[in-house]
Amino acid sequence: MRSLTTAATGMMAQQMNVEVISHNIANMNTTGFKRQRAEFQDLLYQNVDRMGASSSDAGTIVPTGVQVGLGVQAASTYRITEQGNLIQTGNRYDMAVSGRGYFRIQLPSGEDAYTRAGNFAVSPDGQIVTTDGYTVAPGIAIPQGARDVAINQQGQVQAILDGDPTPQVVGQIELVNFFNEAGLEAVGDNLFLETAASGAATSGTPGSPGFGLIRQGFVETSNVNSVSEITALIQAQRAYEMNARVITASDEMLAASSNLR
Fold first, then answer.
1. Pair type for strands 168-172 and 102-106
2. Directed axis angle between helix 226-258 and helix 2-26, to 10°?
3. Is the dihedral of CA 11, 12, 13, 18 positive or negative?
4. Helix (H, G, I), strand (E, B) or coil at 207
5. CA-to-CA distance for 232 and 226, rounded, in angstroms?
6. pTM (2 d.p.)
7. Partner of 6 for a Cys bridge, out of 16, 71, 114, 254, CB 3.0 to 4.6 A?
């Protein structure tokens, strides 16, 4: 019976759906995390009686035909890139992007990665770095002895040195945009890599057209909505149970036919 394999594809699809939901819930408190949504599409169809075929010598045609679907498959896990909430941290090196844009991170391999997680710190040599010690491009060094650091909304980094009341500009934070942010490849550690699907990175200054503003002392929270995720989890669980019930019913029908005398 086709219903056995069809329902099995439904169970596997809902299992994947629950895995995506559980990943979202697990990252509810991850800085800059963007939730995902599992999307599905129907599988191939078996044409028992093709629509449009001739049904008589008089030229009549079959109006609808008979098609039997073979189940469901995963189409994508779409990343939803809407803005998360901004919360104040009190750390002068923390930065949040209010609007579009990603921070560019220089990996030890020489590659560029991108992130929305602006929970930054300074390295032993004064460089602004991520929590893993990766340099925040374009590489801004805070002078030794700086008693305060100010970062304006346009990303200009200023240091106030002892004995000098005039702020000294030490660097400029840049942001990066992509035509298709959902096409970025997540590699963990709050980092994304450019892909052919995302399009090429476009750099710009915070506050310029198409780029958000920098908020010093803030970080962007995860955009996971706990109520929506729990609702989706219940729906996925019920769909899984219904597909399991189809398998049970198909098994009982097969048992009945095999017990015929």
1. unpaired
2. 160
3. positive
4. coil
5. 10
6. 0.87
7. 71
Looking up tokens 């036919």 gives 257
Tens of pLDDT, residues 82-102: 999 999 998 999 999 999 999
Contact 89, 220 (CB under 8 A): no
> Nearest Cα to 146, choosing from 167, 130, 129, 119?
167
241 contact partners, CB below 8 Å, separation of at least 6: none
Alpha carbon distances (Å) from 178 to 185, 222, 224: 12, 20, 22
d(CA 178, CA 182): 9
Helices (H) and strands (E) in the chain, counts: 2, 20
Structure tokens at 259: 């017990």
| Structure tokens that stand for 254 in this block | 């097969």
pLDDT at 261: 64
Quick check: bond before 167 cis, omega within 30?
Answer: no
CA dist 203 and 15 (Å) reads: 39
